[in-house]
Amino acid sequence: MNDTIVEARNLIKHYKDLNALDNVNLSLSANRIYGLLGRNGAGKTTLMSILTAQAFATSGEALVFGASAYENEAVLSRICFIRESQKYPDDFQPQHAFRSAALFYKNWDQAFADRLAEDFQLPIKRRIKKLSRGQLSAVGVIIGLASRAELTFFDEPYLGLDAVARQLFYDRLVEDYAEHPRTIILSSHLIDEVANLLEHVVVIDRGRIIMDADADDIRGSAVTVSGSAETVDAFLLGRKILHRETLGSLASVTVDESLGSRERAEAQELGLELSPVSLQQLVVRKTMAGVGSTGVGSDTGDFADDTLEARR
To answer: How would you label 34-63 residue by residue, b for 16+ Cβ within 10 Å and e otherwise?
Structure first.
């Protein structure tokens, strides 16, 4: 049985001299939590906007529930797209936003929305334009969760939340997903925070998908080998190098391969240290491959910048 609910076929989105999407092909299945990851400007929001009919592709095809979402109420009523820059009428209060959502989403759960508003300590009768950034983010998060839409996109609306509120969001998402399965796409720069939530990871870089794999398959797919530079280089000869750092006679090298028990035993005999690579570091290494930055301390790119900004 084919449970594919989203298909992107050869999607291209061209802006003047920039290909925001460059021949993207993607399939998303029902009832899974996806991570859509990538640097700023990689094409994440563009892809989600096309899939939800908020933007048009230059060429290619985007199918949701087997049809185009454009001017298709039967499809759009099954989709919830929450963005970081979500807009509301100036005179709206959170309670008005929730009432509007209840009219649109057939699976809307007002009792759940009320509980979430209490959890996030959201003043539901305050005008939205008077809310703090974190409170505004909470409005979007609550709508995204309480809508229980079959296909829900979160385009980083939780970046305005503090660490405690973000953890609350993750906890409520997992709890409700277990009781009410649906397809959820999380676009995030806080990769280590969401890593344990994800069942499947899609990484987009400069408009192209460079990783599309189950999270279980990704875990352990790369390793960092540290020790004497000469010994490390000899041990890793012929392997695919993602990143290399050196400090004097020492080297720390990340390889895009897993190591078997025999290889791990050999590394131990050679006095080499093996370290697991987190999902965030793996994404960083893959998106920086070809950037040409290999110096010590230069391995975090936009992800680190965005993480720091989100936590301010």
So the answer is: bbbbbbeebbbbbbbbbbbbebebeebebb
Angle between helices 133-146 and 94-104 (to 10 degrees): 20
C-alpha distance from residue 301 to each of 39, 74, 188, 272, 312 (Å):
8, 41, 15, 27, 18
Q: In the chain, what percentage of residues exceed pLDDT 70?
A: 92
Distance, C-alpha 165 to centroid of its chain: 18
Residue 290's pLDDT is 54
For residue 224, what are the domain limits?
219-310
Q: Which residue, of 162, 193, 217, is where some domain finishes?
A: 217
Which tens digit of pLDDT belongs to each residue from 110-153? 999 999 999 999 999 999 999 999 999 999 999 999 999 999 99
| Residues facing residue 209 across a β-bridge | 204
Task: For 216-275, write each residue's pLDDT tens digit.
Answer: 899 889 999 999 999 999 999 999 999 999 999 999 999 999 999 999 999 999 999 999
The reply to whether 103 and 24 lie within a common domain is yes
DSSP 44: H
Residue where a domain stops, chosen among 182, 217, 252: 217
Backbone angles phi, psi at 67, to 5 degrees: -145, 165
3-state SS of 246-258?
EECCEEEEEECCC
Q: Contact, 120 vs 162, CB < 8 A?
A: no
What whole-number distance in Å separates Cα of residue 24 and Cα of residue 196?
A: 26
